[in-house]
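so my prof wants the structure for this chain in the tokens format not the other one, which i didnt know existed until like an hour ago. anyway here's the sequence
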Amino acid sequence: MIWGVSTDDKIGCDTNLSLGYTYNSSNYDPIYGDAPPSVGLILLKGPSYYTGNSNDTSFYCYGKNRRLKTGYKNTILYSFNRWRDDGPRNYIESYLTMLGLDAYNRTNWINPVTNQPTRYVYSGDPINKRQPD
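here's what i got, hopefully its the right format
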């Protein structure tokens, strides 16, 4: 597999689609050339959890049959991570990232548009919205 140069790549997530993605910010890569590829990962279905609300439903498969669980919901994209060049340095930083916290200063991410705390670093429109540093 050939890897492109990642120093000018951008990342983001779409919380409505439960989608994480990365793309090249300059539309050129020294390895791939013009129009380099991008990649996205989507959470199709998370585990179900009990809510006790009879309006909540979750489906699961048992053998070849699709079954309904009333009072359960499926989890959605809970947080989105960001790795620095060296990645998480230990299990604590990995865990904090999964909780939706900035693992390096252990605080909530701040949405630059609403100025409110969020679990999703780089969520929303990657072109028209400033991303936190």
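also thought this was worth mentioning. The first helix runs from residue 91 to 98.
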